[in-house]
Amino acid sequence: MSTDAVDTRLIRVGHSPDPDDAFMFYGLKSGLVTADGLRFEDVLADIQSLNEWAHEGRLEVTALSVHAYAYLSDRYRLLPHGASMGEQYGPIVVARAPMDPSQLPALRVAIPGKLTSAFLELELAVGRLAHPVVVPFDEILETVARGDADAGLVIHEGQLTYEREGLELVLDLGLWWHDLTGGLPLPLGANAIRRDLDDGSTAEAVSHALRTSIEIGLRDRDDALAYAEGFGRGLDRDLTDRFVGMYVNDRTLDYRDDGRQAVAELLDRAFLAGLVPARVPVDFVRD
Asked: pLDDT per residue over 26-55, tens digit each?
């Protein structure tokens, strides 16, 4: 592939600095995936920042929260792969002592961002929070442990490490959603491509390259895990492997029918609950 900027189109790919996202993009980052006429550059930022940047259309391709897509469907289309979905697991709420989830709306709850899917799902589960406190996702456990919040909404690897901080599980949103919907997976993150790239075969070529990157990670698992381990705060290889396996798997290669149904149902339930402003058409690129 030519690296001459005149001959290639730059595709900036935004993703979180987390083991699962790093694992998905290992194929691209390692140079094992190329695409004629395209030049890929990864951009790392936390999911709240990526959600905010997507409102500006800053990046050609970006990871974003399914919640954020409710506000971005006019600017981005979903790629048919790259989804993070929970299968009877997902973001959790933790606290310093056991409590009933019905108490949460009145408490100070540390959250990783108001556009995260986890926040939307928590408010669907328990009602609107009166005192959400936005905290960087990797500081939520510490924030709760030292008493600066009554409870915390935990995403990423904190789902596996919260007990190290002496915290108690209050609510598992993956189990809640599974019971609510009769077994649908829980939509969390998605990969999306800016609509102005939908010219000719560009979107399809980008989509194919990203899918191939995921396939390479799953195929060359040890190499991809070695790369992803550098993004796992406090995770050893075994926990990195476990965490990656939760969110990068065969469903990541394709949502499948029930995964697409889950995205539509989440956004529809959010609209009916008054948590997003309009019904959202769920629009996937074909590759």
From this structure: 999 899 998 889 999 999 998 889 999 999
In whole angstroms, what is the distance from residue 213 CA to residue 207 CA? Answer: 10
Distance between CA 6 and CA 35 in Å, rounded? 15
User: What is the set of active-site residues?
Assistant: 156
Distances (CA, A) of 87 to 15, 83, 248: 22, 12, 12
In tens, the pLDDT along 166-181 reads 999 999 999 999 999 9
Task: Tell me which residue of 142, 140, 168, 167 sits closest to 154, measured CA to CA.
Answer: 140
Domain ranges (residues) in the chain? 9-85+187-272, 92-181
> Are residues 275 and 75 in contact, defined by beta-carbon separation less than 8 angstroms?
no
Domain 92-181 falls in which CATH fold?
Answer: D-Maltodextrin-Binding Protein; domain 2 (3.40.190)
Find, among 162, 113, 144, 122, the residue nearest to 266 by Cα: 122
Nearest to 85 by CA among 257, 205, 268: 257
User: What is the model's pTM?
Assistant: 0.90
Q: Using CA atoms, how far apart are residues 144 and 190, in angstroms rounded to an integer?
A: 28
Q: With contact defined as beta carbons under 8 Å apart, do 217 and 24 qualify?
A: yes
Contacts of 94 (CB under 8 A, 6+ apart): 141, 144, 151, 152, 154, 162, 167, 168, 169, 170
- The CATH code belonging to domain 9-85+187-272 is 3.40.190.10
Q: What angle do CA 10, 13, 15 make, to 5 degrees?
A: 165
